Amino acid sequence: MTTSQNVLREKARNAIETQPYKTITVLSSLLSVQDSIGWIPSEALEEVARVTSSTVNDVWGVASFYPNFRFTLPPKNSIEVCWGPTCHVLGAQSILQHILAEVGLENEGETSDQHLGLKLNTCLGVCPHGPVASFNHRLQGKMTKEKALRLTKSLMKETQND
Ligand code: FES
User: If residue 96 lies in a helix (H) or strand (E), which one and from where to where?
Assistant: First the structure.
């Protein structure tokens, strides 16, 4: 077993053992791992199985049912474009198209180098400031095509400098 596998197993074990839920279940344990380390590595599936006296197949059955669990390392940088009704009316479509073209994607997803993820969001919760997008979890309102391109380019540069 490699050091990084050991580290992931230790992090998963810690997340499971310190989870805030009163009743420990497969689902509560998976949620704790995802909240803590941002994804569910295979080591975590094994740890959840051990703690809940389940099989890894049973744990996988629960984990794979929920689309919000991810099983690969999240991208280092993220952009979320609000696609809610207010932002849509205020020009989200055009902003999205410019960002997609800049990062080389056709729709939401991750770049092939796994350094940038783009997601659509149904409402980022600040509708009066629409159109809204977030860049590495920093909300930006009153978005324009120019501002979106500038922030996207800056994020791509950060990505390339990693
Ligand atoms: S619809 Fe975009 S922030 Fe609510």
Answer: helix 92-103
Predicted local distance difference test score (pLDDT) of residue 22: 87
Cβ atoms of 75 and 81 closer than 8 Å: no
Whether residues 85 and 58 fall in one domain? no
Same domain flag for 81 and 157: yes
Could you tell me if residue 105 is inside a domain? Answer: yes
116-126 pLDDT, tens digit per residue, is: 999 999 999 99
Mean pLDDT in residue range 85-96: 96
Query: Cα separations (Å) of 96 from 30, 74, 81, 126, 148?
Result: 32, 21, 7, 18, 9
For a ligand 1 pocket test, name from 132, 140, 142 the mutation site with the most ligand atoms within 8 angstroms of its C-beta: 132
Closest atom of ligand 1 to 121 CA is 2
Please give the tally of structural domains in the chain.
Answer: 2
Q: Is residue 70 part of a domain?
A: no
Average pLDDT over residues 60-86: 93
Residues of the domain holding 92? 77-161
